[in-house]
Amino acid sequence: PRLASARYGKDNVRVYKVHRDEKTGVQSVTEMTVCCLLEGAIDTSYTQADNSVVVATDSIKNTIYIKAKEHPVNPPELYAGILGQHFLDTYPHISVANVKVVVHRWTRMTIDGKPHPHSFYRDGEETRTVEAVIRRDGITIKSGIVGLTVLKSTGSAFHGFVRDEYTTLKETWDRILSTDVDCGWTWKKFDGLAAVQDGVERFDKAWEAARNITMKTFAEDESASVQATMYKMCGQILDAVPEADLANYSLPNKHYFEIDLSWHKGLKNTGEDAEVYAPQSGPNGLIKCEVARS
Ligand SMILES: O=c1[nH]c(=O)c2nn[nH]c2[nH]1
Q: From the candidates 57, 152, 189, 232, which is the catalytic residue?
């Protein structure tokens, strides 16, 4: 047998960091879950039980906390680059660091019309994500939004699809559309950590743009299908993020089925009379695409 590939490290490292502004007394919080997996001249730890090449996953976990203390944790793209670069700079036999950062939402409470200095709430399980690969020849970063659940009660149609001996789905010009957004944008390769840090405001701007584009297009597009709407979203992200080469979406189509109640005293609840629906847990459609700049 031959070791075809190998990477190891610590997953599910939960990190919280608070920033305390001494002047204003306003505190800000960040909570994230980090995965850091290393690659390099580590084969003998698999093939020869040679632990001399192993930076223990416990040490990787410690390093995640230390770098979060020593450096900014925002934007997550910067923290991921700093963390990954540390391993290449510190261990000559480590050649690749794969860093995933998932940032959870703590939205500042507004109390009596005023932002509260140190209280927050979890307004949804939506996360901001970063997947960074740090190599000696550069850093590739894919940013994203995962778990933003949306629904529109109309403004979605699906008709004109293949009809044959396998088809039972009725055509519709007015349906509910709901999905859990999983979208991403892949940055052009950065030469190194300095290039990531230079113009670092690009990352927050891109995340805000992608989130706004997703909501606005989802809301306003007279959707002919999930496919057609997500393609528009990708194009708009590429327009808004000039340093991104690729945009992608993976969208489950979370179906809401009409319920025929006509058997009960002729109750009309289908088509234009439909009001009560059965949300489905599964099966669900799953529609994916990647759109390149050219
Ligand atoms: O938007 C949709 N795309 C599809 O491919 C599909 N198939 N069934 N329903 C669907 N809705």
A: 57
Kindly report the backbone phi and psi dihedral angles of residue 85, in degrees, each rounded to the nearest multiple of 5, phi listed first. -60, -35
Angle 102-107-113 from CA coordinates, rounded to 5°: 170
Distances (CA, A) of 14 to 64, 71, 102: 9, 16, 9
Instruction: Name the one residue in this structure whose structure tokens are 């006509």.
Output: 262
| The one-letter amino acid at 41 | A
pLDDT, tens only, 62-75? 999 999 999 999 99
The DSSP bridge partners found for residue 246 are 186, 292
pLDDT band at 294 (very low <50, low <70, confident <90, very high): confident
ipTM for the whole predicted complex goes beyond 0.90: yes
Alpha-carbon span 101 to 124, nearest angstrom: 18
Whether residue 141 contacts residue 132, with contact meaning beta carbons closer than 8 Å, is answered with yes
Q: How far is the CA of 148 from the centre of ligand 1 (A)?
A: 20
Radius of gyration of the chain from its Cα atoms, rounded to whole angstroms: 24
Angle at 151 between CA 150 and CA 156, to 5 degrees: 125
CA torsion sign, 84 to 134 to 35 to 242?
positive
Please state the atom number of ligand 1 nearest to the C-alpha of residue 156.
Answer: 1
